[in-house]
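TL;DR need structure tokens for one chain.
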Amino acid sequence: MQAKKRYLILLSAGACLVLLFYLGGVQLPAASRSRHDRSRNGHRPEQPWPHFSDPLHLFLPWDQTDTEDYNLHISPRQKRDINTSVYKGKRCRMDSCFDFSLCRKNGFKVYVYPQQKGEKISESYQNILSTIEGSRFYTSDPGQACLFVLSLDTLDRDQLSPQYVHNLKTKVQNLPLWNDGRNHLIFNLYSGTWPDYTEDLGFDIGQAMLAKASISTENFRPNFDVSIPLFSKEHPRTGGERGYLKYNSIPPFRKYMLVFKGKRYLTGIGSDTRNALYHVHNAEDVVLLTTCKHGKDWQKHKDARCDKDNAEYDKYDYKEMLHNSTFCLVPRGRRLGSFRFLEALQAACVPVMLSNGWELPFSEIIDWNTAAVIGDERLLLQIPTTVRSIHQDKILSLRQQTQFLWEAYFSSVEKIVLTTLEIIQDRVLEHASRSSLMWNSHPGGLFIQRTNKTSFVCSLFQIIVLWNCDKPLPAKHRWPATSVPVIVIEGENKVMSSRFLPYEIIVTDAVLSLDEDTVLSTTEVDFAFTVWQSFPERIVGYPARSHFWDSNKERWGYTSKWTNDYSMVLTGAAIYHRYYHFLYTNYLPTSLKSMVDQLANCEDILMNFLVSAVTKLPPIKVTQKKQYKETMMGQSSRASRWADPDHFAQRQTCMNKFASWFGAMPLVHSQMRLDPVLFKDQVSILRKKYRDIERL
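>> reply
TL;DR here they are.
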């Protein structure tokens, strides 16, 4: 009898278990899936909170799951159609969807399709195209191109937007060079529309690469797509303001610990995190403000907290909060990206990211662990404790890196676009690609030379004469005898810019640049080189010039007067790093170099602009012998040139043309001159190392 009861109990338990499995009440644990590395350099931001192997599913509060906004009634077929249109080329990588052969003959050149008559184009997209057309990558010949960019505006693919371009699918397919998108790059800031905001662009991108804002890690194709930041139409095309970190104060704490001010979405995608911010807000050092007052029908969805939130929202000034907070919360909006991201970077307010699944901008090259805190939307309540636990030394380091990244890659549309192109070029020229250290350290990847020979100079190594004269070379017996090799290069084009070509025969780091009429003693050269060894990133030399703003003419002015400050050291008698030859030749646009060559003037000013743009520092003037100015003016070969008013007017024009291209005035004034120790001190001349300088 007992055995029969046990048998019946066991049979009933087994039947119940089978029934539970059948109805889905019990689920077997899924095998964990391995995660791919999303960056060539292995930089994936590490989560300071628990990391889950399964992809995050959107959390919907129980009382909102049946609302009108969430009940989208999308059929499985519609979902499949959306996924097909977005992810048809999801498996694309450089080795499968990019034709490297187009880049072998002419290098990395970018072709922009001619703008079609009658096609509207937004200001932001025009800025992108203008940047490409003004860059060193641009070619007007599609036969030379390695990469193709559409002139059709693809930035805003929200069907409710006035910037939305209709019939784009047909227009793209009719392009003669489309080739299913192969070797094409598509820029996009906004995709999808209310209510689901998918990443659908509304046309088949084929095998094209995406440079896209708010792209998810699920849809991002590593080492193929490029994640770019979301930027507003007011974002400057060139130049851009510098970061707001003026002083490295210790301790690095500000008035607020954590701030946010922005919209609160009452329903729909992106509403959960912002709706929960009030739980963390304390109105003291954690100030997280939201407002319901946006959109046409906000009152229709108004909840019990709206009036209170709106009133408190209006009490605070956003810029004051931004510039006086240590950390800035960057929660997702309707899409994964947010304008708050770039605003926080510029303000030296360390971004605290709350956007699960967002592939951060330029993640392939930037180590965001050094400039941001990567949070988890599911663990919002832990954020105040987490940021308070960060040591002040780490905070200072994070803040400094925000400023570097802002100025190097994000402060203008030009820098965003050029960084995108440089990333793709590194993939194409992988053997010469830049390392993670180069991208994440000053001066940044845009100014870094790909091949770098290093040979430290401690004395004169060789003399290189660039012969740009129309007269024939002197006979060998007329050249002076020297203890080092003399190499003569005959300029093929005989233009001014040829003096800054990256000649392979220059194997030392230091380059002493001299005009043909410059007279310097060996003591002066030796002292200038000693100074340069302490400041190898700057131009160190003798003849100084300055710039000023002419308020009457509303333009930049150039002066050669001896005043109490300077902003340029002319390359007619200066030492600088040979790396700047590479930048001058490969970074500056052809338009500026052509201007210099046509005028046969201003090459020294352009080099000063370039170096100051890279270093954000002034050049260094060293002790100048008394006769230097008179010597320069007294040489017959240049007397007429320096006295020529047209020559001076040309240099004024150059200043303004260069400032326009750089987007701002990069030159920095200085009142410092370096003299030898004991210079003119009342001690015996025999005790002085550079005694000859005082005797000149």
